[in-house]
Amino acid sequence: MSTAFVTGASRGIGKAIAVHLAAAGFEVAVTARTTEEGERREHSSTIRSSDTSPLPGSLATTMSLIEAEGVRCLALPADLTIRSSVVEAAEMLQDAWGPIDVLVNNGRYIGPGHMDRFEDTPLELLERHLEANVMAPLTLIKLVLPGMIERGSGTIVNVSSGAGTRDPDQPAGAGGWGLGYGISKGALHRIAGILNLELRDRGIRVYNVQPGFIATERMAQDMGQFAFDASAGAPPDVVGAVVAWLVTEPDEAEARVAGVDARELDAQAVCRELGLLPDWPPSPAG
Q1: Domain span at residue 238?
Q2: I want to staple 153 with a disulfide (CB 3.0 to 4.6 A). Which of 6, 40, 203, 274 is the partner?
Q3: Looking at the 3D structure of the chain, how many domains does it have?
């Protein structure tokens, strides 16, 4: 049976991707910081305040949903800002399951500096963005790549962001985002196209999936104060359905990214055009 590894899978987009891959028949390993519901961790987006209130979601909850699909799941707690933690999780996974077929780099830095302006942001917070959003994905790719090359197949999916390719309409804290998020997502955006050129002749495909605005649990709980309205977002299942389609329909996916910069798929456009979620988008009222 094929296997997948999804980062940032305790809630939101990562959780949806993991569950959709399980429904498609993949055995799924998941990683995140939150292992059980109700844990308190810093998730304030600004240096001006602290917020350790529990967010909905945990590896335990995601694991139960994956196992309900009748496939194995392995939960591997890790912190993307600590490289040794990332390495340990990947090594534990491959020791337990061997080489994996699909790597989904979804997790990212959560914490102060995300919604702060540059003059207020300590440089070490920019470094945390780069470590979690760029170096952690590259570390995981380095670790899983030998197994993919040996078997002559594999798929790597990086969850990208419009913040990496365009400027915000407003400054950070007023509807835009901080420099750390933008520069780290910009660096992540360049990985897929370059690595795909290097690896495609050995059966390995690399993609960016751009979610668009998604109504995650953290978006609803945290981001209203920064002028983000979660009610305007698409459900995380949109991205989950697209990633599952991408890895199970490789020929169709390749046709869609032919000639597209950075091999980026617009998740909401693909989901809508292919009708991957029967109830989304909702029918207009009346």
Answers
A1: 3-274
A2: 203
A3: 1
